[in-house]
Amino acid sequence: MKRLLLTCCLLASAVLAQSPITLVLHGGAGAERKKLTPEKEAACRAVLNEALRKGYAVLKQGGSSEQAVIASIIVLEDSPLFNAGRGAALTRDGIVELDASLMVGQTGLAGAVANVHGVRNPILLAEKVMLHTPHVLMIGEGADKLAKEHQLRFEAPEWFITPEQKERLERAKKKDLPKGAYIPVPDRELSLLMGTVGAVALDQKGNLAAGTSTGGLAGKLPGRVGDSPIIGAGTYAENGVCAVSCTGHGEFFIRNAVAYDVAARMKYANATLKDATQTLINDKLKKLDARGGLIAVDAKGNVSTPFNSEGMFHAHMGPDGVAHIAVFEE
Length: 330
Ligand code: ASP
Hints:
By secondary structure, the protein is an alpha+beta fold. The chain contains 11 helices and 12 strands.
C-alpha cells in the first residue's frame, strides 16, 4: 500500500512538474484588410489550424519543442498561401530564393540556410545544418548540396511559383520601391512585399525552440538575405528565457537584433515577455518606421504576438488544447 502511494505521489509530481505545452505560429505581418477576401482568410486559417494541430500533437506526445516547430513549419511551407516554400515571394528576377532558421533553447544550437533553391522544406535543411555540420548558417550552392547529401526532397522551380506571387511581383515592380539599401517603406507598399512563417514552442520538459522560414520580401534583389535566417535577428531561443520568431521589414530586424533583444530585455532588465516584445515592436521599431511583428513564448508558457503592421496571421495553442487564430487583433 505504502509503495503504491509512493508511486502515485511520484507520478503526480512528475505530471505537475511538466511545463505547460505551448505552440505559437505566425504567417507573416503582411495581411491587409482590403486584400483579404473572406475565402482567402478562411483558407489561411484552415492551414494555420492544421499547422497548429501537427505541431501540438508532437508536444502532446512528449516530443521536443524543435520537432513541434519543424512539424508546424512544414505545413506552412507546403501551403501555397504563405510566403515560405511553395508560394514564396519572388526576387526582382522572378526567382524563388528561400531562407530559414531553427534554434534550440536547451542546447543553444542553431542551424540556418539562406538563398537556397529547389529544397521543398528549407526548415529541414536548417535542422541538417545544425545537426550535421559544424556551422550555423549555410547559403546557396553549398546549402543545396547539403540538402542533396541528406536526400531532402527537391521540387522543380515552377512548383514554388504561384500566380499570386507573380502578380505581387508585378505590382511591386510598378511601385519602384527602394533598391539596394532598404529605407522605410510606406505601410501599404510594405504589406505588398511581406510574408514569412514562424513557430515557437515550449515542450513538456520546459525546453524552448524557435523557427522561421521565408521567401523574403517580394521584388528583393537576387542574393538579398533578410532577418529570417539570422539567429538573433529573426529567430532566437534560450531555455529559461524565451523563444522568438519575427516577421516584417527584415533590414530593420537585423539592424536591431530584434529576436535577441527580446531575450536580453528579459534577462538583464527583468522585463516580462509582454513588455519586452511590445516595447520592441510598438515603440522602438515603430519610431524607426519599421513595420512587422513577432511571436514569442517564455519559459512559463506566456505568449505574446505584437505587430505594428495592419495584420499578422498568428495562432496559438496552450495546455488546454484550444486553438486561437487571429489576423488583425493580437
Ligand atoms: N522578414 C522577412 C524578410 O525580410 C519578410 C517578412 O517577414 O515578411 O525577409
